[in-house]
From TrEMBL:
Residues 46-113 form the Protein YjdM C-terminal domain. This is Protein YjdM. It comes from Paenibacillus aquistagni. The keyword NADP does not apply. Pfam families: YjdM, Zn_Ribbon_YjdM.
Length: 113
């Protein structure tokens, strides 16, 4: 007999199968085995232009002149950005750049220092 996983809601070990559903008799939570496997793969990996994995607090360097939207100024190549924060969305780096203030960057335009 295969070992069924514990309930993700109450951690009960008394789960049972009903067709393609897994059911917990203690809290009445129902889920599929596919959904239980997908929960572990939700973490998004953000990589820089060279393929290095970025994490919160890293220091990166801008690899291309970037126009600042709504302004005539440009973030120059080689600008060092300290203490980045990773966020969800198209622009996946949230940071502060000296002389520009708070800004969002795309990870494809930076490299890890």
């Amino acid at each position: 007999m295969t070992q069924l996983p514990n309930c993700p809601k109450c951690n009960s070990e008394y789960t049972y199968e009903d067709g393609n559903l897994l059911i917990c008799p203690e809290c009445a939570h129902e889920w599929t085995l596919d959904a239980a496997n997908e929960d572990h793969e939700d973490t998004k990996v953000v990589k820089d232009a060279n393929g290095n994995i970025l994490s919160d607090g890293d220091t990166v360097t801008v690899i291309k002149d970037l126009k600042v939207k709504g302004s005539s100024s440009v973030v120059k190549i080689g600008t060092k950005v300290k203490n980045i924060r990773l966020v969800d969305g198209d622009h996946d780096i949230d940071c502060k750049i000296d002389g520009f203030g708070a800004m969002k960057l795309k990870s494809e335009f930076v490299k890890k220092v």
